Structure formats: structure tokens, C-alpha cells
Amino acid sequence: MSQNFKLTKEFLASHIWSWGGLNEPPLTTSLRFSDDGFITGYSHPNEHMWKINNNSLEILSISGDVSWEFKTFLETDSSITFIALPNSDPNWKTFFGLTTNKKSSSSAPTAKEEGIRLVIWDLDDTFWEGTLSEGEISPIQRNIDIVKTLNGRGIVNAICSRNTFEDVKARLEQLGIWDEFVFPRISWGPKGPLVKDIIEKIQLRPETVMFVDDNVTNLNEAKHFVPELNVAEPDVLESLLDNPRFKGKPDPEYSRLKRYQVLESKHKDMAATGGDNEAFLRKSDIRVSFHSDIEAEFPRIHDLVNRTNQLNFTKNRWPEDIEEARLRFREEVEADFDTDVGYVKVADAYGNYGICGFYLSRKDEFLHFLFSCRTMNMGVEQFVWRRLGERHVPIQGKVGSKLEDPIVDWINVVEDVDKATGNTSNNDKLSNLTICLRGACDLMMTSNFLRTHVSTIEEFNYAYEEWEIVTTPRILALHEDLKDERNQDIIARLPGIPSNRFDSAVITETADVYVLSFSQESFHGLYESKSTGMILPMGTYHFPYYLPEGPTAKFDYTSFTYQDILDRGMSNVSEEQWNFFRNEFSFRGGFDKSLFIHDLHYTFNRLKNSGKKVIILGLNDKIGSDVRILEFFSKINEIVSNLAMLYDYPVINMRDFVNSEDDLANDGMKGGTHFNRAVYKSVSDAIIESILITL
Known about the structure:
This protein is an alpha/beta fold. It is built from 20 helices and 31 strands.
């Protein structure tokens, strides 16, 4: 850094940053440096934490290694850019930059006292004048008005009083205000434990609670049991409604009060079960529904993202201005093709809680994962996390729940919790089905919508030790070859073969419905064992998918020496493994039509004989800039559709949903293999409709 530039924590935290390769579109325009040393607004394992070291900015990976060290900056009149090369790969000669306006970003969060969401009232000589147990009391109209006004602002009121419960209830009913309170704790015991119990039952953070009492000893006792609690003597009431912390939000229908009254009823019913929370939850008929129309419900979701704390696991906030927040949300969705986003509604036997959860993930890591405290202790966050595939949640700050426990089996998924129950819904019909999705990114993205309605087994391509593992019909047909012990020995000596390489629900017949897609036929070259004739697809990320001639033209890996692959950057292959592969296998080329048809027959016969329902997802062969891949997909579609007709398997045509380039993903390529979220949602709906027809 320049000798004149002093890098400070305050400077970094008060700005919003763009991040990406220099002279390239940014990976994000919403990166932030949190005071706690974490990076928010952008999620990647290489950029997880940060620190200042000798006036240099260091970016640390999720494992704690220094990924970037920024010692140099470029400065203009209005902006500043830190630049660096990646520490993890010094041979990668691409400069990356962090850029921000010099002025502090108005939307960056600033420290302030939190708004109050609950007021706990003492009664004698606080809410009213006098002591009820000693005779008549005198109501204070100002305090009655305060309670009603706070409820109208969405700030609820509770009672903690040393008195006889029946006497207090009768007097407050006479005043017409008993129903304005929730969770009354009225007894002759110490107040500290009672205040703590109210806060725990009402599921709010102590920082958002105010306890008002005329006895300083009671206030100190409450602080002893709940150190973060706000406490005050009755003189605070004179100007309480003018205090910004009690501003709340307009709630003329008392919706928050009603929700806490429902919560109070639930606690009473749970107590009737002997305090067994899980037994109570199983009787509560908890239902959730998953939805993807974020823009239609954006005000509520914006409020959830910026206001939730206890069950906000990621705490990546948006700008307070709703239109700025909307732009930020769109940037987050469009930043990566592999983005899954949705919101969750919740209802149970006690009422409908509305939109209570929101999630947004990229590449199996959540950027947002959060829930309203309305669902505290219901198991909703654990259920949703497991339903979405237990993706990584980079937890920020304190949270009021663990995702790993408990294992939730008392929640049901429905189409929409807002719809009246009584008729058998589609989700009821699907609830006992397991669907196996086997294919590439088309089904991987569709699974984001399907898994919120049905149980799924997901068999997609993935990386293993620098090799790509594909889920083509060839892998299934190899089960016949692997009955030969010689082939088992050959497989054991090859690189890039995980122990579960040939596992599939197609073989174990553990799914009820199978949805299959075949775009991966263009991915890998084929290699034939000289000893046994076994044919394997092999592909590594260190070589392009295909040569300039087109999708069926592949590199012949057997032509490369061990030194050649080391020069290519491969590191998880031993010389013994590579030489064995070169000597044992001969290169057959790319796509083999007759072999593909053979493998399709093997797969289709196996599923037909087991009585399984099969749905084929066709490939887009019309829209996109990669003409050669579209032509290849057209050939695949022709082969597959003819065989599907023979086996009486329905085909969902991707061309029914992809009608123009507007339907393609905004990934900078528009090749024709990736689509926008609306397309995947439509494909998911078509799959569900196809299943329901036969039920």
C-alpha cells in the first residue's frame, strides 16, 4: 500500500465492494467485510475471512489459508481498487481486484441499538398505582394507551408481577385490557427466573426486550438471569412512545399479538403432554410449502433478510431501500448458473404463520438461509435444510438452533399452506414416492424444484480427484462386465474411480419413478480393455470436452505420457496407474451410436422388468449459439425418443419450454445447454404432472 494510505477495519467495513478479474465482469458487486472478520454478500471457499496484516489486506479461505494478499492499489478521484494475484496458484497470471467508491456506502450497516419487540410490565406501582394485594388500585390511562399503541406497532406486551393470578386477570378484564397481554407470569416467586422464562417462551432475543419495574432490586435480578435484557424504571414510560426504539411497524390488525397468542396456546398444550416437545409437535400437524415466486413476495422476504437474527444462519443483509435490495437480489441470483432460491411458508393446527423462511444457494453453499422466530423449536429449519440436501451453511454470528439435530419426521410438505385442507393434494399423492433423477445439469437444476415436493435420489455428474464422474447408460451396462473378476481387477488399478462409481438406484431398484436425461453422451471418450473388451468412458477436467471438430471428437488419453499429464497439471494419478491405463486400454473414440443404443436397451429393460415408471427428459436442440452441440442433441433425441416409444415411456421435450434465447441462462455463453429458472420450474411441473397421471 502507499505510505499515505492507512488501511483500516473501519474503511473496509463501511464500504460495499465489487470483486472479480480486472477488466472482466465482476463476480459480485455486493461483497462486504464484516466486523467479525468474515466476508458477506459473496460466497466462495477461497474468500471466506479477512484480516489486516502490516497495512496489507489478506483474504483467507474457509480452511484459513491466505488466498489473496493485497499490497497494491489503484486510485482515482472517486474509487479505489486493491489488486493482487492469487496466492494459491502463482502460475495463474490473472489479476483480480476489489473496487469501491471512496465515499462510505450509504447502504452499509451501521451500529445502532436494536428496536424493542417486547415490553414486560410489572403491575403494582408501575402499570397501575397501588398494590393489588393490599386493596384497590388506580389505573393509569396513559399506560393502558401505551400497551394498545405498542400492539398497534407490532410490539407485544407481557406481565411479570408478584400477585395472585386470578386477582390480576379479573382486574385487567375489568379494565378491558387482559387480552392485550401475552405470557403473563403472575406468582409470588422471584422475578428473575420468570422474566427469563417469558423471553425463552416468546423466543425473542433479550436485546429486543424491555422490562419495566419500580423496584431496582427486581431489575438487577432480571439482569442477573438475562444479562442482555434492557431494564428501566417507570419514568421511562413518560416518553416511551416517542423513543425510536419503540417505533415498531404499523400493525393495525394486531397480527403479531395474535401470533404470540397462538404461541402461548401451543406452550399450554405442550405442557399438557408432560413437556415432551416432540410428542407435542407430532400432534401439531405442521405443514410447509416451498415457493419460487420471490419477486411477488419481495417486501416480506426483504423484511426477513434484514430483520431476522436468531434463526438467520448467514446474516447477509440487503440494502434497506427495497428497490436497491431488489437489484442486489437479482445480482445474487444471476451471479452463478447453479443458483437455487426459494421461500418457505409454514402452518400448523394452531394457525398459518405465512412466509417464514428464505434460502439462496450457489454450488451447494447457502448465501442466505434464514427463518422467522415464529417457527422456533418447530424443527422447520432442520427439516428444510435436510430437504434441500444438507448444503453447506456458513454460519455467521450467534444462532438459536442447530441444523443437525433433531431429525425431523413430524413435518409434511404440501402444495401451499394457504390452501384449505380436506381434499387430497398433489403433495399428498406424491409424499410416499421416491424419484431418481439421473443425468446432467438439466436435471440437477430441475431437482431444486422437485426435491421440495418429493423425496429424490439424485445421480448427477461430479468431480473426483480431477476426473469427472458421469451417469451415462454405459455405467449401468458395465454391471454386466463387472461380474467378471478380471474387470474388477482392472477397475481397481485405474485412476479416477471412486468406490461407489457404479452404484445407482437403477440397479438397486430403490426408487418408484426414474427421470433420465442423456446430454452427458457428449462428455467423454471411450476406452476398450485389450484383455476383456470392457468399454469405459473416461474424462478429466484437464482436457477440453471435445476437439474443434465437434462433440464426438475426443482427445486420446493413451497418446499422452505420464510427463504430459503432469505438465497438464494432473496430480492425483500415479505413474503406475497411468502406464497401466495406457497399456491396458485402446482409444475407441467419442460417441458410439450402436453402443449407446445397446446401453439404453439394458437400462430400459431393467426398469421395465422391475415395473418402474420412467420419464425421459429430451434435450434442447433448437435454441442456442453452439450449433454443433445442438446438432448432436438432435441425434440423441431421435435415438432416445424412438426407443422410449418402443418401451412406452413418456418423453418431456425441452423444446416445449425453450423458445428463444431469453429462455437460456444468462451465463455469457447462450450455448443452449443451460436455461433460466423459469424453464427448470416448468420442467419440474411437467415431471410432476406426468407422475400424477398414473397415480
